[in-house]
Amino acid sequence: MSTKMNTRVTVDIPTVDHKRLKIIAAFYGKTMKEIFVEILEHGLEQYQECTKSHEPNDITKKAIENIDKRKGLKTASSVDELFKKLRS
Question: Could you tell me the pTM of the whole model?
């Protein structure tokens, strides 16, 4: 048996939609939360989950390694100076 963890979310919805949600919940003998969760779950079906790899590629890994070794870092005393150095 799987147990779902819940997270509280505050959502502002138009008053007219709140009233509709309340009426639908009463009509079906459910709570507004139950109806809202059903609508949310159904609506989420239209969105695909991300299938991309979030592993850094070799170039990114090398850049992170260089930063960890403090290799090739540029220093500047101001933001303007930093951008000038980065452009060159």
Answer: 0.49
Q: How far, in Å, CA of 32 to CA of 38, rounded?
A: 10
**pLDDT tens column, 28-40:** 999 999 999 999 9
DSSP-assigned states of every residue in 18-64: HHHHHHHHHHHT--HHHHHHHHHHHHHTTSPPP-S--S--HHHHHHH
Q: How many residues does the chain have?
A: 88
Q: What is the mean pLDDT of residues 10-29?
A: 95
Q: What is the mean pLDDT of residues 57-86?
A: 91
Average pLDDT, stretch 54-81?
A: 91
- Residue 2's Cβ-count burial label (10 Å; 0-12, 13-18, 19+) is exposed
How far apart are the C-alpha atoms of 18 and 25, rounded to whole Å? Answer: 11
Report the distance separating Cα 11 and Cα 21, nearest Å. 13
